[in-house]
């Protein structure tokens, strides 16, 4: 389905040249995007106990075994998971409630409020993290997992609210009116009509929250303490300290997990819908 | 009434976790630095000293480094993303197309840490490029090469996002317009220059802006790939906290950095209009 | 017996716009009334006030004799058929119909029985498990109707019930809807901007404009005896004839400047200075080509200027010899033997005319 190819007469050789160059560029780009991932996979299977030249002489699963025996990966992953799940839960409730309130049209200054809720998107995460540290220190809160939870909620709430607002805005106001006139009170109407229809938005927000929270370093760096270290912070510390191929094994596990999640998303929601609701305007994260 | 109660929990979170920190940063950036203390010392008054101290070649160099690496990577990422989005939408078979979209989507969601780690291995001492580097006489520990690796990390992270946002714009483009131009006798490269690019310009600008703000506020990419040799402004904020515990100075740098990203966004938004 | 619905001097403002200006009317049990008017006339506001989506600024809305002030929509027993139906897209047809019963504590068995009954009533048996997006427009309309009626509301509101359908389907469903309302004895208010819909559905019509009810009455009355120009024009094609009312040899007549005389039932008593006669095109008949016969009362002559075919009827535009132009509606039975430009003779029935002042 080449567009207009039958009509091209003049400049045909320039077209062929430009086309060839562009395809070549795209090929190089694809290699650039995927080669590192392949390298990580190969290295994670290295049987040597040290960092050696590629390719490895033989393959083994020793690094994967070490993931499960390591003393820092398990606890920090647990911390990360708890923080991420708390953020998901709070975003799905407080975030959805805020999105409903903003789009209800019954709140003065709702445009300004929407901007306030989305503004953490344009502030570098490091600035948010450092600022939070100062506020919490002033309040005398210098440790505890609660600090991480607050930080992660602040950087993920805008994504959850935006995804939720996108699905609320597309909804016909008359549906809730129909529910009301049929006898459902506000809460019943929300439960039976609004909620099922914005489910995609809430799920999208939850996915973004999970992805950003599980990957955050910039905010967490300021808010971790000895007892509460998130997995990304622990990994960065180890990455800088010494090369340890356990991290390669974790990286491969993360890739498989991501591919799995994307596959599930595509089957259940359809990637197009998720893209449309959450991604267009900003980057995934600020770490 | 009801709406107020609904928004209250979220509003509290945003005020406590976002507005208050920014306000305190601004305030604390004017405090006098007393080693070993967090927060203002009573009766010391306000000072502009923390900002004045930033006017050193070292810090300005850092700002410059952040900006130019940011602009370079955003430009490269957008320039590659555009033909890529075009190819995905217009030139691939439906099957390949959804495969590529899924792949791009997965790359957006893949942990940045995983990407960084993979890149540091690939371009590092044992990576497949080592013979090439040696043959070309490039020092893998030289500053220039490290800058390149940091840039590679930024492009790797920003490119999939840019592709996805441009895919939408290309999809909205009416192919009949291009056919019309083609029928009028223009070669295809001219058609793209005259019609495609102007029509997707808003999307291009926004993709570029997203990549740029991403790059200049990047933290973990320069932290790991920069190997302590190439730093961004964000890394300096963390150093002020973790190494010398100079909070007022860290706050001043934070304010500068926030201003930097807001000004960038405003400038680009104005230029795009 | 109290009226099912009573509007008592209701006023509603939206900012600086007065949507309703002291509107008062009542609806008797079992009656269907039609609120007719152009968009922005306030008819939808009346509907929303009855439903409880809006509260009146002044005046009272009484349903079954009870003041509705402060009652939320779900505290009123009112059914509403939305203009674009507002069917719940994530529920099946049966779930949509059962929705209202869910929150009324109706026992399960009874809900099922009622859903079946409603499906039969709107002739959608076998569609219970479909989703709204699997239905045609007409089917969706009937599901919405069944949903609104399932709770046996005291009053059923229909907001432009047929406007989203194409012309052919609209006519079929109009009859069906009227029969259904009669069969179930439902008290209903139909809001519409289509005068045909209002006349065929409403036992009484309220013509509205700019937040006021201009005229109310049975369809024939509103059609033939409009009390103002707006109503006259809004209800259908109309001719305005200039002239004066005098007592002729055989009784009261309307005399045009050209000397044509039209017998009218009586001289306008209330409107002393009336100088205009309002005639529907059906009140004028084309008798044939003009052969120069002497003119009697009730005849006029003129030149045929244009003919427009509207399917069953044909509209003729005739320029009278005194310069006024009239439209004549004639059944489209025969090929009109008339050439544009030829002289024609018209017979006028003035007994259905309405008088207007200058």
Describe this structure in words.
- The complex is a heterotrimer of chains A (287), B (273) and C (358).
- Chain A is mainly alpha-helical.
- Chain A has a domain at 74-240: Orthogonal Bundle (MetI-like fold), CATH 1.10.3720.10.
- Chain A is 71% helix and 0% strand.
- Chain A contains 13 helices and no strands.
- Chain A has helices at 12-44, 62-69, 73-103, 110-118, 125-138, 145-169, 173-181, 186-197, 199-215, 220-223, 231-241, 246-268, 271-278.
- In chain A, helix 3 packs antiparallel against helix 9 (199-215), helix 5 (125-138) crosses helix 6 (145-169) and helix 7 (173-181) packs antiparallel against helix 8.
- Chain A is globular and about 75 Å long.
- Chain B has a domain at 71-229: MetI-like (MetI-like fold, Orthogonal Bundle).
- In chain B, 77% of the residues lie in helices and 0% in strands.
- Chain B contains twelve helices and no strands.
- Chain B has helices at 2-28, 49-52, 57-91, 94-109, 112-122, 130-136, 143-171, 175-183, 188-216, 220-225, 233-242, 247-272.
- In chain B, helix 8 (175-183) runs antiparallel to helix 9 (188-216).
- The longest helix of chain B has 35 residues, at 57-91.
- With 358 residues, chain C is an alpha+beta fold.
- Chain C has helices at 43-51, 93-102, 108-121, 137-149, 167-184, 195-201, 219-224, 229-235, and strands at residues 5-14, 17-27, 32-36, 58-63, 66-67, 78-81, 155-159, 188-192, 204-209, 212-217, 239-242, 244-248, 251-255, 261-263, 274-279, 284-289, 299-310, 313-320, 325-331, 343-348, 354-357.
- The two termini of chain C are 43 Å apart.
- Chains in contact: A-B, A-C.
